[in-house]
Amino acid sequence: MNSLWVGNGQYGVMDAAASGERTAPLSSVTGCYFALRLFYVLIAVRIFGSTAQAGVTASLACNYALLGLALFALPTHRAQPHLGATRLSRIVCAYLLLTGVSLLWSVTASLAAATAFWGAMVADVAIVALQLRGNTPDVVARSLMGWFVRGASVIAVFAWLMPAQSDLRLGDEELLGPNQIGWLCGFGFFFAQYLLLRKQGGHWKVYAVLLGVTLLRCLSKTTIVAFLMAQLFILMRDREITRKTRRSLLALALLVGIAFSSLLASYYALYLNTGAGRQLESLTGRLGIWTYILSEAVHRPWLGHGFHSVWKVIPMFYGVFEARHAHNEALQQFYAYGVVGVILLFAIYISLFQEIRKLRVHSLKIFWLGFLLFVLVRGLADTEVFDISWPMWLILLFGALARQSNDGTETAS
């Protein structure tokens, strides 16, 4: 294997020449949008001098416009008729149903806004589902992931050009946190790694290096730890990576660490002596967030507080920080959807693990297990506002890819 370092392993998959470089244009646009929407609010405020709400509105408008395009371009036939509903697709539908129904009892600050955000999450899934109707999963994944990587790389470049924050990390003090940039770069790195694994061209190595270095420069602690654990797992468990390659990659990682050692030391000193009163003891304030949200969650233990029920609802922490979520995936689901949400969350990740274990191609199995590890570790101290860390649209796409791979249908692409 060569996830980031393609070698001569046999994967039982098409290479770029065999596939004829077939692409799905709408999937390409979708992937680019999924990455670039992180910047919409920042662009609206810093470049156009508008409001954050205008940036959010523009992002939602693009989201629904993409859904409209996907419906307009809906083919009359399926590219792979037998690639129908999977267990993962049914779980995705169950999660969307639960989150949608929870709007009936949500304590959200704005029901209209919550409904719009929920609709956008559904639109993400619908766009991918419609693309899978007219193209094979491999083609959709290649197009979507490829342009996601390109979009994430654009954000990475701009993040380097922006002035550093007061705590030395990349991002904007008010509108774009380093954790958001780091998570996007981590996702983009894994997508580039997947494309390299599928032999889609060596140029993805350049994108992977840019995204990996930007992730480290963001100093997003949880994401970096999750990323390193996942990559070490892939490096050690993939039998097709030679010892020479392992040594080279470990040496490269050491050199990068040395290059950033001065910055890391400065940030560590700042981390120990500033923030909401001893950040190290409070895990950057997370212990306070976890304690408060858990104390609120137990008041509605079965069905929770509903969709989008944290932002502008719970009070500010330490007088300066307004949390958008619980900073822990399981706790976020418990607060929002109660015990039902936690059970569904575990069902999702257990199902993903089981589907990954069924993959017949060893290198693909190790890659996706590494990606799952990345998501799970990150979920211990961070999560998403609306979706889960492994987003619903990607669960749907992975389910189709897994079935295609195990059915041996990739040559039909």
TrEMBL record:
It is found in: Membrane. The keyword Transmembrane applies. Its main location: membrane. The chain crosses the membrane at residues 31-48, 54-74, 95-119, 139-161, 181-197, 209-236, 248-270, 334-352, 364-381. One of its GO terms (cellular component) is membrane. Keywords: Ligase, Membrane, Transmembrane, Transmembrane helix. Pfam families: Wzy_C (PF04932). Residues 207-346 form the O-antigen ligase-related domain. It is a multi-pass membrane protein. GO terms for molecular function: ligase activity. It comes from the Bacteria. InterPro entries: O-antigen_ligase-rel_domated, WaaL-like. Signal peptide: none annotated. The keyword Transmembrane helix applies. This is Lipid A core-O-antigen ligase-like enyme. It comes from Terriglobus roseus (strain DSM 18391 / NRRL B-41598 / KBS 63).
